[in-house]
Amino acid sequence: MVNFEEEVLQQSKELPVVVDFWAPWCGPCQVLGPVIEKLANEANGNWTLVKVNVDDNQDLAGQYNVRGIPAVKMFINGEVAAEFSGALPEQQIKAWLEQHIPDEADKELDQVAQTIEAGNTAQAKKMLRSFLEQNPEHPRASFMLGKILLAKNPKEALTLFGQAEKKADFVAETLPLKRLAEILQYRNNPSELEEAPVKEEFLSALQNVYDNKIGVAIEKLINTIIKNKAYQNEAAREACIGIFVMLGAQHETTKKYRKRFDMALY
Of 29, 148, 158, 245, which residue is the catalytic one? Predict the structure, then answer.
């Protein structure tokens, strides 16, 4: 029996673990098994393979939603990061591995992400600028630095987001951040804004973002939406969306204001 907690969940915190859910009676499993075992032997320790016989581990198969076999799941930091099913050809499996296994650059950027989570954005900014000197226009690094710079330097952030969206993974998240970067630049160019009673409150909100008074900024943006939703092509609405993306769905400020924002739209 596999010690899944130790061999997969704990081990995946050190390096990726690829789990092959199989059974002795499964014909496609017999085709896939030797191929994935060969690739594991050639991996030079970049990832490891664990084979799980579903007949002997039915609870595990159910827990990880294994509907058919062979089913291959990659675990990183204790979670399923990628998966496929069926006996894929060797070249397709190689491409899958290359797409999802972190390289040395990703490992370095993971350390930067930990620095950001610890609240040391100044140090993270230095680390990212140094990284980008060695890896110009790296999409993930550009995205991370763009988020850090967004409130204070939206013009540079906009350029960085343009570099980030060269990788498809970042396109969806980058779009609202690019729009926020465009809107924040009105702070230094107020003459480009429509003249309306809400203009001063809207500008004040942009200044609050610059000053890192994000909650106050969102309050004013929501007020702008309530008074004049269409103002400057719905800039207040788009700014709120961008701020929520910048903070992340689980940030306490997002949780506090998201419902009020949604209600203000209707």
Answer: 29
